[in-house]
Amino acid sequence: MIVVWLGIGCPLDLDEERTTEPVVLPADPLPARVWRLTADEYRASVADLLGPEILAADRRTIADGQSVNGFTNGAASLQVRFEEATDFLHAAEAYSTAVLPRVPELCGCDPEPSAEEACARDCLDALGARAYRRPLTEVERERLWQSYLAGREPAFRDGIAMGIATMLVSPTFLYRSELGDPASEGPDGMRILTPHETAAAISFMMTGAPPDEALRADADADALSDPDQRAAHVSRLYPRAGDRLVDFVRRWLAVEDLTNLDKHAGTYPDYGQALLDEMVAETEAFIRAHLVRGDRRLDTLLTSPDTTVGERLAEVYGTAPGAVALDPEERAGLLTQALLLTRHSTYDSSAPVYRGAFVWRQLLCQDLPSPPPEAVEAGRSALEARDPVPPTTRERTEVMTRGEGCVSCHSVIDPIGFAFEHYDAIGALRATEGGAPIDASGALPASVDVGGPVRDGPDLAAALAESEDVQRCFLRRLTQHALGADLGPVDESGWLHGASESLREADRDLRAYLVGLARDPRFVQRRVVPVQGDL
Amino acid sequence: MRRRSLLAGCGAAALSLPFVDMLARRGAHAAEGRAPVRFLGLFNPHGSWAEYWRPRAPSGGPAGRVDFTFDFPWSALAPLQPWRDRLIVFDGIDYKAHMVTPHGAEVGHEAGMKSLLTAAGWRADGGRFANSMSVDRFLELHLPQTTPVPSLRLGVGTTGGRTEMSTLCFDEHLSRLENQEHPYEVYRDHFVGRLGTPDPALRRTLSRRESILDAATADLQRLQKTLPASESHKLAAHLDALRTIERGLSKVSCDHPMVVDEAWSLPVPEASRLQIDLVVQAFACDLTRISTLQWMYSGMSMPMSWVSPAAEDPSVTLDLDIHHGVAHRVDETALARKQTALVQRWYASEVAYLLESLDVPDPMGEGTILDNTVILWGNSLGEHAAHHTLMRIPILMLGGGGGMLKTGQYLQLQPPFGRYVTEVTKDMGYAVIDEATRRANHFSNNQLLTGVCRMMGLPEVDYFGDPRLSDDPRFRGVQWQGSDADWCAS
């Protein structure tokens, strides 16, 4: 999108999509809930049931929930309304039609008439248990058999396909149950997740997909009430968490959305889809290298100069393509990567206000109000009164935001954003702008634990990497993504605090945090009694 | 329905709607022989070039209110010349919702396309989506549900994977409503089984669907009983959705059903015609009375190689980077301006085909279907595409609106642009539009959507969209909270 601000005042809440939500009961266990599969989880579940090649049969995108802090997988807002119900229905029809030729292979039998019923029942049992992530009840078994009978003309495989379609639109498939075992409910309204619910909770948290064989076996053996066993599964699945972690980091950094990234062609002639693709590839490879593999530390993500760049991006960075160690004086970690800088820029300029607001909101978990209208007026007049217009973005920003109603916010966020002024709207280094030298000196406010002046982008990144505040904010967001709810500040919550203790003990290895979450008793507790703040 | 109760009790018309004559149809809904009014929203992206888009006087000078023609060289709307008495050209409608932000005006592709049918700005809570449901959904919720299909949302070339740039319609939860892109799927999902189709394979699809839905409904009802109160609303909404789908499966008949074959390969021009045919069929058979049809999406760049070279100059073609690319260059080269005219002319030719198809006797009552339809055709960007502003949007209303639409008019709603500093735009990413121009213009698409609601049988709707845009003092100070917005003052 190209944004033109008529009122050249304080274009502060441009990025309204990242709002924070009031904190709900930080220390409490989660409410008993049903959690609709996200579009990605739905496709992973279909692939798990019918084989990954089936996904080619239907490519519709099912709508996810509302964005909270950039995350759309919240259990509270993932629903099935008319549009999603229609999408799920048509997708189920497409998948169950495409699977027809593979039914005998899927069932492991292609029966003679005499053996048809046994073959069909066994097949539906096995597929149903996989789809519903637990053994079938008698009622469900009978329902699938009736579907089979309704669909079995002209052939056995049509009946199985009908059964599969029935599974794929069943709420038991579409929602992950976290209702807990009613028999476990105490007078305090707490329940414990069933073994199969626990297996799914671990599996989806780590891989975004249904439980694998090892988890299913432990669920069958009721071994997941043992915290060590849950912890072992989290560690075991961690190498397969790459897609989930990439998705998490991209949302955390607000770079998951690649729409509206046009840049002024005259100013940036080399910019285009091919370069943007390389930017995405760099960041994704970086996340995998340092968070999935590597030392898995937040400070490494924020400071490491070790990255892998394609040919076009290498031109932008002024380096050789391939695996490189960038000059640490120029770039440090995710915050100085081209993707992030390009996203947090305007059409034809760097954007100190957006960049500062981004750090403030997403790395420090701070709220930011909209600018008051009178401040906008003042900012507009201030710039219009300047002739000639100042040559640098920094100066123009300073002129526009020095008004009385602006400074309270802009004195906080602008100095953070100014530290990125060495990078233009596509993340390339620049020494001058409009003929004037770049001034990238900035500051983190005193309210932050690492507050104080910073020289430039790498210096800012180094400060943030050592910040406990940033670490706590990161863990809060990571927890929201993992558990489908924003549980509030980590340090006020016994549960999350426990997990962050295990992080500390493991020398900041983030895997230990996820292990700590799964090990906590509250991972398997759910509250049935509604408390104010639910929904 | 909460919003319905808000609507009830609204006062008399507070809004000037110079294009609507409600009296023309007083008591119409009770009258025998009257066909229902249908609504069709049309969208295509990338603005236009005013010189070629605005009609001219037949004598060659500036056009007058009724004295206008589309017949001149490079006319973008040339295909609509035979229909000029059945439409209104609105020159000077702004997407004002995006001009009253605390910061001034926004411009850009997706803001525009979201504004067309919502007349609202961004929603505050996340995603670059609209802060109101779109008028198609509003009508769907508030009109008595008498048709088997609540609405159709059709697309041609709209699945670019860039959802924020390709979304036109929103529901009451401010979630986007998807287009159906493939004519066969539209046919299969909404037409089959309702129009006496003879195809046994399709009948089988239908009965399977009923059986699958029955099973899902039973599962939901069973699961619902085990839920804590805090979660039951989710499954209640899910059950409602399944009931809506099932109600849609009940059969109606129409005498002349068309057939769409799954195997047909459909390039854009063919798909466009087929989607139009489906809308016409659906309106004719009263499958639905509400539809949208969206061609392409904002920001897409593709050659339109099926378009013939311009009759005016065969060297002007759409064989290369067209569409978004030329929109950015209209103020740079004469070629780009002519290409923009040619792009928009193709859309106009599709609209002309639509009008021709609708202009047949209405099986539901008096007049032709076109007489009983109100069509709103809008764009994502203004008449000066390169600026990407949301001012002076190319918008037409077409059809008779059940006799209520005062067609055959060219309505010039604001003076030409005031100070508009292009140099500043180019250098700094800011545009300055002088305050007088901005304030002088009080016409936004809110009025158009209000008119649509009234023509469709909701005369009590006094305002549609963001109430901050209203000049009516009753709406001033109304708290605007997205989906909870009050639609009229009490």
Question: What report would you give on this structure?
Answer:
The complex is a heterodimer of chains A (535) and B (490). With 535 residues, chain A is mostly helical. Chain A has 23 helices and ten strands. Chain A is elongated and about 90 Å long. Chain B contains 13 helices and nine strands. In chain B, the strands form two sheets. A seven-stranded mixed sheet of chain B has the order 3-6-1-7-8-2-9, with helices on both faces. Chain B has a two-stranded antiparallel sheet with strand order 4-5. The two termini of chain B are 17 Å apart. Residues 1-15, 26-31, 416-440 and 474-490 of chain B have low confidence and may be disordered. Classes of the chains: A mainly alpha (535), B alpha/beta (490).
Key descriptive features of the protein:
heterodimer; A: 535 residues; mainly alpha; 48% helix; disordered N terminus; B: 490 residues; alpha/beta; seven-stranded mixed β-sheet; globular; disordered C terminus
Question: In a few lines, what is going on in this structure?
Answer:
The complex is a heterodimer of chains A (535) and B (490). Chain A has helices spanning 39-50, 82-98, 103-107, 116-132, 138-151, 156-169, 171-174, 195-207, 213-220, 227-237, 242-252, 273-292, 298-303, 311-317, 338-343, 352-363, 373-384, 393-400, 404-418, 457-465, 468-483, 494-505, 510-519, and strands spanning 33-36, 175-178, 190-192, 306-309, 322-325, 432-433, 436-437, 442-444, 452-454, 525-527.
